[in-house]
Amino acid sequence: MPITQSDVLYTAVATAEHGRDGRVATDDGRLDVVVSPPKEMGGSGSGTNPEQLFAAGYSACFQGALGVVARQEGADVSGSTVTAKVGLGKNDDGFGIIVEISASIPNMDAATARDLVAKAHQVCPYSKATRGDITVTLV
């Protein structure tokens, strides 16, 4: 069920200037970065790019979801890390992204870790937002 404006707990605001070859900053000044296309796409690669920012946000959000699921299950995920690999490529509509989420959970058997990661994928807001629109692979 979609959330309504009255359900919102926090709103982030960022403004971009000059698209992929410019600057992105948040309204509170905590994030202010130069963006540029990667060398693989003909850019200078001198700044970060939107895919890196998306990967950073997705991995942080997924790590939080993993922690929520672990607490509900009584599991210990201390020392765990989540890596998001975001690929950009051409598709029938122009361009699209693909994501690989990789979680490392020390001191946990592989089956339990896979189960927790799958459950985190069901509750992570980034996973929910992208479900059905992009391919997300869990590792």
UniProtKB/TrEMBL annotation:
Q: Which InterPro entries does this entry report, sorted A to Z?
A: KH_dom-like_a/b, OHR, OsmC/Ohr_fam, OsmC/Ohrsf
Q: Name one Pfam family in it.
A: OsmC
Family (UniProt): Belongs to the OsmC/Ohr family.
Q: What is this protein called?
A: Organic hydroperoxide resistance protein OhrB
Q: Which organism is it from?
A: Streptomyces cyanogenus
Its lineage opens with:
Bacteria, Bacillati, Actinomycetota, Actinomycetes, Kitasatosporales
